[in-house]
Every structure is written in structure tokens, then in C-alpha cells.
Amino acid sequence: MREAERQWFSPVRDYDLGLTLTSGQAFRWRFSQGWWQGVIGHRWVQVRQQATGLEAHTAVPVDDWTWLEDYLQVRVNLQAVLATFPNDPELQAAVAANRGLRLLRQEPWECLASFIISSTKQITQIQQIVAALCARFGEPVIVPPGHEPAFAFPSAERLAGLSEPDLRACKMGFRAPYLLAAARAVSRGEVALARLGDQPVEEARAALMRLPGVGEKIANCVLLFAYGFQEAFPVDVWVRRALRQMYFPRRQPTPDQLAQFTRTHFGPFAGYAQQYLFCYMRNRWTDQRVRAERARRPATETIQTDGGRPRRAGRLCQPGEKAHPAVPNAGNGVAPVAERQASAGRRTRQASGRRSPSRPDRSGSVRGKSREPAA
To answer: Which of 17, 197, 241, 282 allows an S-S link to 227, with CB 3.0 to 4.6 Å?
Structure first.
């Protein structure tokens, strides 16, 4: 076996891997020993950021790497996308704060099922539920020698044959009957996920919203993250807050006014703009929490993160090192890649996921309530 068969490299520029994989689009990536490890389809893969691009390793030889290039969307010209954004200071600030953020292109069923599971849950909890679902009902995939087992996401047909208690055992609670009903509908062909990408966005959205547990926000997430419909603009608590604070600071727009604004203001890549607003508002709120915590503590006191390791000047402390207030990065103000990846991972563990205010959606499912403090 030639080592090159298990290695891939893309000289893509303007790509922040850590930020992209932890931005609330996908829930199966874990950062370990300098690599982002996950399962795409039936392949275990690990990816890391290099100074000149992205590098990936698989456990088995690969002849065609199109599946990874499509998933990571490395062929997208990000600068061309950003050039279509309106030249308003609010969106430009969001872009500057999240340089290299990309949209992924996921398998439709996994994306749909993951967002049905996501209702009212934080990202860490979603990851735990998805991991339990895959470990119980997914097919095992080949991993490197000595690596812990990994599993593919279970198909709609596999989940359709289960019972509601089977799914509740994965700690998904009230989401279990919605996921089960959606799996059965998809497995019966009531919604042909493979053909939605060829339909007009309005028809594709309507088809998804006929599934139990799928409202407009979840449908738009699937349309954007699985099919690449740039007209899809998921509005959750973070995006709604961004729109109101950044574009309507002196009045409270109605939902219809917000929808009309998103359709007309952000241009042909509105879905991309949405992702920048989402990350900008979520991370800004997280940073405010960190600063408030630092202000309540002595300057040399260790501040613990969710992972149990302390923070020092925007990075994880080394063993025995004390934390102190952050200092600006030198030069252009952009942290080194490894530092930004670690920061992205911390923000994900601390921040809540994509949730909507508590209200029934059109399918009857109850969508979550944000736990963050009022603005």
C-alpha cells in the first residue's frame, strides 16, 4: 500500500477549517492531536490545516477524492462570493471576524436528521446524540489500527425499522417520534431527497416541510448545507438577533419584514452571508461572557474552560501556566491557525446551537428556546 493513496492535499486559500467545522453546520467532527477527525459517508477521515492548504488522511486507499473536495467545497472561490456581499459595515465586520469561514456540502439525509435532532439542544448535546445514534445503529467503518471504533450515519431505511424507544435510548427525547416519522417517510419515497436539488427552492422547501418535525428553519438549513441553495436563509435566534441589532436597531421588524429584507439585501450568496452573521453574533456573545468572567477574577487567576484546561491570551494554557487577560495578536491581528482552531473548538463547546424561539412550527414540533441572556 502506497502512503500517497491515503493522503490528500488541497492548496485552497482563505479556508479556516476549525471555524468551518464548528460553525453549527455539521456535528460529527472532533479535534484530536492536531487533526479534525470525522466520518463522511462510509469513510473515516482526518483533516488538518497547513500553512499552504488542507491535508487529509484516510484509513484505506482512495482512488478518487471528489467526495472530500465536494464536502469541504474547496473549489469555491471565496473571494468571489464575498465580492457579491453588500458593502455595509455590519456585514463587513462579520466577514472580518470570521475570515475563511466556508459552507459545507453534506449528505442530505444525515443533514436533515441531524437538524431534526438539534431542536432546543446545544451543539455539544447534539454531537452526543448523533454519536450515540451512529454507535447504536450505524455501520462500522474502517479506522486506523488502534483507533477507537467509528460508524457511518444510519440510513433512513435503518432508522425506519426501529421503534421510538430505540431512538429515545440515544437521549433525543421528544425528537424521537419526529425523526422516526421522517425516516419512514423518506424510506417510503414520500420525499425524494436525491431529487430535491434539481427542483426550484420553493418546491424543495415545501417538500421538506411536509416531513414531521421540519419547519421553515430546519428546511432552510438542509437546503443550504446539503444542497447549496443560496436563496435559503435559516433564521434562528442568533441570526434574528444579528438582523435586529445590526440592521434594525431602532425598531422591531415583523417576521415578514425580516424575510423580505434577507431576500433583497444580501445578494446572490445570501446563504453564505447568513452563516457569517450566525457565527459573528454567537461568537461575540461568547466573547462577552469570557470578558465578563475575566473581569470578575484576579488577573493571574486561572480561568477554566469547558474542556478543563485554562485560557491564556486567547489560547489554551500549557500545564503549569497561569492565565492572564488576553493581549492583541501581533501584526495583522489574526491568530495563528492552531490557535484559531482551538478557539473555535472552545466557542462551540460554550455556545448554543442553531435554535429558534419556543413556538410550534408548521409541522407541530416544538422548537427550542435560547438560553442566552437577553441582549
So the answer is: 197
Backbone angles phi, psi at 176, to 5 degrees: -55, -50
- Strands (E) located in the chain: 7-10, 30-32, 35-40, 43-50, 53-58, 140-141, 150-151, 311-312, 315-316, 359-360, 366-367
pLDDT given for residue 334 in this prediction? 37
Q: What is the pLDDT of residue 322?
A: 41
Average pLDDT over residues 209-213: 96
Residues 277, 242: contact at Cβ < 8 Å? yes
Q: What is the mean pLDDT of residues 41-57?
A: 97
Sorted by where each begins, the domain ranges of the chain are 106-227
Distance CA 346, CA 207 (A): 36
For residues 327-345, average pLDDT: 41
Q: CA–CA separation, 58 vs 65, rounded Å?
A: 10
* Of residues 273, 267, 262, the one with CA closest to residue 103: 273
Residue range 249-307, pLDDT digits in tens: 998 899 899 999 999 999 999 999 999 999 999 988 777 766 777 777 765 555 444 44
In terms of Cα–Cα distance, which of 236, 228, 300 is closest to 262? 236
- The grid coordinates listed for 173 are 427525547
Exactly one of 171, 217, 322, 369 is catalytic; which is it?
217
Backbone angles phi, psi at 199, to 5 degrees: -95, 160
* The model's pTM: 0.79
Give the three-state DSSP class for 44: strand
CATH 3.90.79.10 correct for 106-227 = no
Q: Average pLDDT for residues 18-32, to the nearest whole number?
A: 96
Is 121 tagged catalytic?
A: no
57-95 b/e (C-beta count within 10 Å ≥ 16 → b) = bbbeebeebeebbebbbbebebeebbeebeeeeebeebb
